[in-house]
Amino acid sequence: MAEPSSNLKPLQLTLAPRFLPNSLMSADFAANYITKIYGMTFGHKPSLRSVYLHNNKLTDAGLPDNMFNQSNNVEILIMSSNFLKYVPRNLPAALYKLHLRNNKLEKIPEGAFSHLFGLRELYLQHNLLTNDGMNNETFGKLTRLEYLDLSSNGLTHVPSGLPRNIVILHLEKNNIRSIAVDVLTQIKNLEYLLLHNNRLRARGIHPSAFQGLKKLHTLHMYNNLLEKVPGGLPRRVKTLMLLHNQITGISKDDFNTTYFIEDLNLSYNKIMSSSVHKEAFRKLRLLKTLDMSGNKLKSVPYGLPKNLEILKLKENEISSIPQDTLAGMSKLKELYLSFNKLKISSIYTGAWAELSSLQLLDLSTNQLSYVPSDLPESLEYLYLQSNRIATLFDSAFESIPNIKGIFLRFNLLTPEAVKESAFHGLDKLQVLDIESHLALPKVTKQKKEKETENDEDEEEEEEEDR
């Protein structure tokens, strides 16, 4: 008997079956080429609970007007990744999960969801929806809706008439430019609001846009056009993502009412040291993580919260750590200062001693000439690669007996410059990266290359003489 060919492709349906057993409870026709559904494919099936039709070729013309006639108990309908321009008609009233993402939806017809009183999850992302394709009544009857995803559409402003019980609202990757005064304030249960990758400016957000949202704890507004921290931020927000905007400074009152922030990300803006008010963070007594990487800071800012556990200041232009800027930060566990312009002389004496809980210190890619002294005893990981360290003294690591990882590659170290006793007593050391053969100064490299070229020229001349 001939063996079946390994090149055979699995059978894929182009039409749904005309008739299926009335006892059917679940139907999965995902990842086919189905272009048409018949009236009795899913109709007259009282036990039917879930239908999966995603990744097919369905258009509006391929759906019967009453696709679920007398199949009123369907709870899950997945029709993502098709070619639908409109929400299917006469959807089962029992639905609690409806997926229509990655279609061609341009408009939601009036009353399309008006009978879906039990719907809890609605996925409409990656369509062609605009604000003109919806109105105040579109979602008005969805009183139990908790999850709504309208991301990756063509919205220019936050839609009005959103359901009051939404917990998670996705509006990212649109063209949203404004948030009016009353479009969000009625959503009293809102916890997650995702507005990243839009066109928001601070002046386009009404000062009272977030008023009364007492449960809102996570707000993503990164990758927008914010030129400053928006006013009227949610009072109980805990996670605030403002990275990749155009923010140039932090004023005294920007975070005046946001007492509960624990994670604040301001990285990759245009913040300058001179534009950070020394009292800007005074009310953030619960802040644990602050990220100001990728800005235009020339020095570590004053007034950093004392309760910080993680501080990220990498990829700035920091050339100094001024006196007492790290004072009182006894809870700090991780400090990232890589890709700056720090020198040993520009760090105030006793800076590291302040950080009695520090476990990770990243000073890679700076201009340090030797290992900083008086590092805290708690330190476990020390990153010093790509500096100008030429010598390791006997006492270089004596203050950090708990160190587990030391990274020193791409410095100016030579075997003669590493003292034998430099690593004595480091009984917990697990990783030592001290590769240095590539870390020759540029002048030395150029000199060597020139000498090599000269040698080659001399050899060629001698060959010609022969």
UniProtKB/TrEMBL annotation:
Lineage, highest ranks first: Eukaryota, Metazoa, Chordata, Craniata, Vertebrata
InterPro entries: Leu-rich_rpt (IPR001611), Leu-rich_rpt_typical-subtyp (IPR003591), LRR_dom_sf (IPR032675), SLRP (IPR050333)
Keyword line: Leucine-rich repeat, Repeat
Organism, as annotated: Aquarana catesbeiana (American bullfrog)
SUPFAM superfamilies in UniProt: L domain-like, RNI-like
One Pfam match: LRR_8
GO cellular component, one term: extracellular space
Record protein name field: Podocan
Residue spans of biased composition, Acidic residues class: 452-466
Region (Disordered): 443-466
